[in-house]
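tool_call: predict_structure(chain=1)
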Amino acid sequence: MESWPLPARLFTLRNRREMRVTISEHGAALVSWWAPDRYGRMADVLLGYPDDGEYARNEACLGAVVQRDSGGPRLHARHWRGELDVGGTGLILRPASLDGIGMGLAGLELRYDLDDDGCLSITCHAVAESPALVNLSTHACFNLNGGHADVGDHMLQIDADRFLAIGSGGALRDTEVSGTPFDFRRPAPIGPRLRWPHEQIGVAGGFDHAYQVGGAGSGIARPVATIHDPGSGRRLQVSTTEAGLHFYSGNRLDGVVGRGSAPYERHAGFCLEAGASRVQRDGARAAGTLLGPGEVYRHTTVYRVSLQP
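tool_result:
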């Protein structure tokens, strides 16, 4: 495990709705997001650790920026350098050093912005100095009821008609969602789908699959998923410039010691992580976006927390 060259700092962004989003230089991790329910009561809608020092290890990758499915370095174990904007509305995080990161990148930058509409924009920018395979995403683990129960009653909608089924040896198979528990084209509760007698639910112990949401290349973030908690009224909307969306139902959270009075249990949270599609036009599969020397990688994901109308 890497030793930290500098003390890690926490940065908190605020908006006029009294939301507070805190980000750590440990792994560029989203630490907390305080948001009101339908009665104005505030709660933290992110799973996390009781002490920021835990993010230096973060074996569960809670809130951290990760390099998904590429076999590359574990970015959640990097120290980033935070820089607040003059106006205090954004936060730029840069690695203290890219030496030894092994990604072929000459630069890597993340920017976080929170607006008064409850939108947290996360923008990644990277430049390759040699051939590089890049697929960055944010492993923010949400629970919209504030952690009072699991996420089984959360109502999920994903704008996708195909997902990648997991085969033997981890091979992926492009599959239609129709007739399967993976069909969230119309809102449905997560819990009952976890109990479907479907081979893919058994393989992953729940949902841990990539959806093909299409539409990449325009550079404009478009809506791809919505999830809301009927109890609190909170709603999360996800928009992205990317063509892939990974849905994870917290299958391996049991035993993780978080901020609650007891360790997290299975399905205590969920992740909706945008990233590169692994199905290319020619039918070949790749683990991310392949860059040549001098080429630029940009990726924007917007999480919006609001109230269900």
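agent: The chain is about 5% helix and 40% strand. Proceeding to next step.
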